Amino acid sequence: MEEITPPPAPSPDAKPVEPAAAVPVEAGAGLAPNLAATICAVLPLLGGVFFLVQEKKNAFVRFWAMQTALFGGVWCIVAIVLAVVSVVFAVLHVPILSWLISKVIGLVAVVFWVGFLAIWIVSIIKAFSNTEWEIPYLGKLARKQLAGEKLF
């Protein structure tokens, strides 16, 4: 039978071994940058505003926060405008015109919601995978805003 020998004792001048490089926790609220960006993407307006206020150092998280705050803002504005226009034409009730405009508004709403949903899902995936993807048009606005340039 073989004898089991204990491991040798470390020498007094040996340095402790550091663990392998861990994921940096640099984002505000003590989260990994990709998780902070994912929260921004999942909750576009609220998450974006929260991390814009909370995060001061990490450029990746700040970019996602600004971009998703703009995306959430646009999403809310489009929803409000479509709802108001729908209500106005429902109240007017001009027989053929109201019916036609309600169908057009319904089609426009479906196109916007499908587009917003697609961008929202892609944003969540890209943020979680630590990719700096720009939402069309809004990504450039976010970069300009973070750089301190005028938006318009």
Describe this protein's structure:
It is a single chain. The protein is mainly α and 152 residues long. The chain is built from five helices and no strands. α1 packs antiparallel against α2. About 5% of the residues have low confidence.
Globally, the shape reads: elongated
Percent of residues in beta strands? under 5%
SS-based structural class? mainly alpha
Mean pLDDT equals 83
Helices, by number, come to 5
Number of strands: 0
Short description, anyone?
This protein has 152 residues and is mostly helical.
Name the features.
mainly alpha; 152 residues; 65% helix
SSE blueprint and pairings:
Layout: H1 33-42, H2 44-54, H3 59-92, H4 95-128, H5 138-147
Helix pairs in contact: 1-2, 1-3, 1-4, 2-3, 3-4, 3-5
